[in-house]
Amino acid sequence: MWSQERFGKNNELFGIVQEPSNLTQKDSLVITLPGLGQAMSEKNYLFSNLRKRLALTEQWQVQFDYFGHGDSYGELGDASITSMVNNTLEVINEVTKYNKPRCIYLVGNALGGIIALKVISQLENKVNAEIIPILISPPSHLPKIDELISDHVIQKVKKEGRLDSQYFVPGYDYYTLSDFNLEQYKYFTSLGAHMLYLHGQCISYNMLKELNELEPVELFKKCQNTCHVIVGKEDKDAQTLSELQNVLMYELQDVAFYHQHPAAMDELIDIIQNIIRNNECI
User: Fold this and answer.
1) Is residue 281, in this structure, part of any structural domain at all?
2) Which of 156, 178, 208 is the last residue of a domain?
3) Is 39 exposed, middle or buried (0-12, 13-18, 19+ CB in 10 A)?
4) Torsion angles phi and psi, residue 34, rounded to 5
5) Same domain, yes or no: 83 and 219
6) Where is the Serine aminopeptidase S33 domain (predicted)?
7) Is 0.90 surpassed by the pTM of this model?
8) Both 92 and 107 in a single domain?
9) Could you list the residue range(s) of the whole structural domain that residue 91 is in?
10) Are residues 223 and 150 part of one domain?
11) Which is nearest to 34 in space by CA: 77, 71, 78?
């Protein structure tokens, strides 16, 4: 059965917990981590569909909205990578306070995959459970902000603290992208953002600063766990991750990203379910 829950010191985070009928320490826990600006359901309801599929096998699961995302308190302009990591740590601590899982799967999409790696680095040797990252199209290389955004805009957001995302990736033709700078568009979509929903929301200087400091490949190298990475076969940028020793790569056929075709999302859910089913800690 599932229930709506509030997390965090001030109950500021909204989430859903799916528990098996008889929760024991033999159960594993799945926590899903959306990308930038996305609610807990993720683009095309990926994580909601995943939860429903895994619920058929009574999988213990948690979906939640970061602060400034979805139904949680705050606005996107209040969020940063640090806050997203801290939110995830809070949720893990609260959910596992009384019931200790055998292992924890962190299923992160795009920027959510980076959040997963950062969470693992903070939890190493602090929890008595194996933490297994399942990362969907995590960015492998991110250009620096000053390569994408004019100095005038950077100085403006530095002064004001936050700006509407239209300043960073302007455009109104969401279907043919005729008036978008494609490098800017690619950057923000690689983080999991959807322009129709990102526009009208603010992004803070702190968020941009932390994004600018990210070195995704270094995060992978520092992770002591095996990273299950799922990418679209047409996503050529992601292939560099396959060269890393701790990465197991899975490919979605005929797409660069899962949301480009319904069959790709079904394939993705199958892969995630099989990773969990086949893992030795189940």
Assistant:
1) no
2) 208
3) buried
4) -75, 175
5) yes
6) 29-131
7) yes
8) yes
9) 2-141+215-276
10) no
11) 71
Rounded Cα gap, residues 31 and 22, in angstroms: 19
Q: What is the pLDDT of residues 8-17, one digit of tens each?
A: 989 999 999 9
- Overall domain count for the chain: 2
CB 14 within 8 A of CB 51: no
Q: Are 66 and 85 in contact (CB under 8 A)?
A: no
Q: Which amino acid is at 132?
A: I
Regarding whether 127 and 12 lie in a shared domain, the answer is yes
Measure CA 203 to chain center.
17
Q: Which of 265, 262, 234, 226 is nearest to 106 (CA)?
A: 226
Give me the pLDDT at residue 231, please: 97
Are residues 123 and 61 part of one domain?
Answer: yes
Output the six-digit token pair for 166. 């239209």
**pLDDT score of 26:** 77
Alpha carbons 198 and 196: distance in angstroms, whole number? 6
pLDDT digits (tens, 9 = 90+) for 103-121: 999 999 999 999 999 999 9
Q: For the chain, which ranges sit under pLDDT 50?
A: 282
Q: What's the token pair of residue 256?
A: 């660069």
Domain CATH for 110: 3.40.50.1820
CA distance linking residue 201 with residue 68, whole number of Å: 10
Q: What is the pLDDT of residue 282?
A: 44
- The token pair at 261 is 């075709």
What is the 8-class DSSP label of residue 124?
A: T
- Taking residue 90's Cβ as centre, other Cβ atoms within 10 Å add up to 17
Cα–Cα distance for residue pair 144/204, rounded to 1 Å: 16
Q: Which residue has the tokens 């936050």?
A: 162
Closest among 279, 230, 263, 276 to 58, alpha carbons compared: 276
DSSP state of 50: H
